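Technical annex, item 7. During the second reporting period the consortium partners agreed on a shared format for inverse folding records so that results from different sites could be compared directly. Each record opens with the tokenized structure and is followed by the designed sequence. A conforming record, contributed by the partner at site C, is shown below for reference.
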């Protein structure tokens, strides 16, 4: 199996920077602010022909605040599930009481530990690591994750804790990367219950849940398998109106959420039943549709409403979300689990519709029936002729319609074609794009007067009609005078 390396340490010692270097990615947010990472972030890394999984964790602080305790539990759980633990310490700040406390906790786990003394650029390595021998966890190594110094020696030492079985060969090299499966992004406004829904769908406390908006800052991707089908759940940061985004960290969190939407197969937009449908909810739904992603709507916190309030929410959803007639709406409680199981059927249906495969002949016959039932209108007194259609792409599905004067087709008729195609193909849960292609005019690039006619070869000039000469006048005989 691929070994798992868990990065543990106090806040602001450079764990996320090291994670990005080891995975050669920018999956973890990095800023000069302690406590930025709160959840576990998993990424793939390679070292030569060997492959590994790297887990970034939140900082283990010395505070007893409830949120800090939740972050600590997630980090220690990652260490317990890892094969090797990378304990990152700050070489410039020196030994801290928190480092000793973390080392004591790691010794109880009985896992192999490699100490990485970070931020040692420009320092004498032997002097920088000397005091960290007192932690009793082996030989510390001086590194600089920001400058990629000492990372080769760090990986050699870390992966050396995972021996290779000669009978089975290199387990890292021979272990293929599994199919990631359906990527499902959970998005919504802050504090609508996205992380609670992710934990409920996974069946474990995988991400930090706290009753404070903005708890989740990174996009957390968690692969899992349900009934033999692989999924990747992506918990994202809450998205607020741009005018309310004041911190740089929150700005980058919104960017990560937008990237998660673009990279997802299906997006589950979570709404708060207590707030009905807000302007920000509608804007977020419009963003998902503009990105062309398959969509499922989850109205959360349904268990705390009275029947009159539920009727009001039903009416508001029907009134405000008329542009989402293709998406399913689920009313559920992520906290208690009621209605959560029904999400999977809608997610699978939306994913199948987003990647539907249709033959050109089938699409053309659907187009012909739609045109026969409702012909296109006349434009400048001329009829628009739609000839054939074919599939032009997936996620979202794109149907390309070719025809004569199709560029002049009115927008209401294009929407009619979308509805006709959606109903005929059974597409549900995903936007459908109809692109119009106008047939090229074969005479567009020919000079006037060069139009071929009859059996004359193309390009041959027509003959010039010269006037016929007048017939000669007959001379009268002399005897006729």
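Designed sequence (site C submission):
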């Amino acid at each position: 199996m691929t070994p798992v390396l868990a990065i543990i340490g106090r806040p602001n010692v450079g764990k996320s920077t090291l994670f990005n270097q080891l995975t050669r990615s920018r999956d973890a947010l990095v800023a000069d602010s302690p406590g930025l990472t709160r959840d576990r972030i998993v990424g793939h890394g390679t070292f030569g022909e060997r492959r590994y999984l790297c887990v970034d964790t939140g900082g283990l602080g010395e505070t007893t605040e409830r949120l800090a305790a939740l972050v600590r539990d997630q980090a220690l759980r990652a260490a317990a599930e890892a094969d090797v633990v990378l304990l990152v310490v700050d070489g410039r700040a020196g030994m801290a009481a928190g480092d000793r406390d973390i080392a004591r906790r790691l010794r109880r786990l009985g896992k192999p530990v490699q100490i990485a003394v970070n931020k040692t650029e420009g320092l004498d390595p032997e002097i920088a690591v000397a005091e960290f021998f007192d932690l009793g966890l082996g030989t510390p190594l001086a590194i600089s994750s920001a400058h990629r110094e000492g990372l080769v020696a760090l990986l050699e030492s870390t992966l050396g804790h995972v021996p290779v079985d000669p009978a089975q060969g290199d387990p890292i090299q021979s272990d293929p990367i599994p199919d990631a499966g359906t990527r499902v992004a959970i998005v919504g406004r802050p504090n609508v219950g996205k992380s609670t829904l992710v934990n409920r769908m996974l069946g474990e406390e995988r991400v930090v849940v706290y009753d404070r908006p903005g708890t989740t800052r990174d996009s957390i991707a968690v692969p899992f398998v349900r009934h033999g089908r692989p999924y990747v759940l992506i918990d994202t940061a809450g998205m607020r109106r741009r005018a309310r985004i004041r911190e740089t960290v929150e700005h980058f969190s919104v960017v990560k959420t937008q990237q998660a939407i673009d990279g997802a197969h299906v997006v589950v937009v979570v709404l708060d039943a207590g707030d009905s449908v807000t302007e920000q909810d509608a804007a977020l739904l419009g963003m998902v549709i503009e990105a062309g992603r398959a969509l499922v709507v989850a109205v959360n916190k349904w268990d705390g409403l009275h029947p009159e309030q539920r009727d009001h929410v039903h009416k508001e959803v029907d009134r405000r979300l008329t542009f989402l007639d293709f998406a399913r709406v689920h009313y559920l409680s992520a906290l208690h689990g009621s209605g959560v199981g029904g999400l999977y059927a809608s997610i699978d249906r939306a994913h199948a519709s987003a990647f539907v495969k249709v033959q050109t002949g089938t699409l053309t016959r659907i187009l012909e029936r739609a045109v026969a039932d409702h012909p296109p209108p006349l434009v400048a007194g001329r009829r628009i002729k739609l000839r054939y259609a074919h599939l032009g792409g997936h996620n979202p599905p794109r149907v390309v319609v070719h025809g004569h004067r199709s560029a002049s087709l009115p927008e209401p008729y294009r929407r009619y074609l979308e509805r006709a195609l959606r109903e005929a193909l059974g597409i549900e849960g995903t936007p459908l794009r109809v692109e119009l292609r106008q047939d090229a005019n074969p005479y567009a690039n020919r000079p006037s007067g060069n139009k071929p006619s009859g059996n004359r070869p193309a390009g041959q000039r027509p003959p010039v009609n010269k006037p016929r000469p007048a017939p000669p006048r007959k001379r009268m005989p002399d005897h006729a005078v």
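The first strand starts at residue 4 and ends at 9. Residues 66-81 form the longest helix (16 residues). All partners now use this format for quarterly exchanges.
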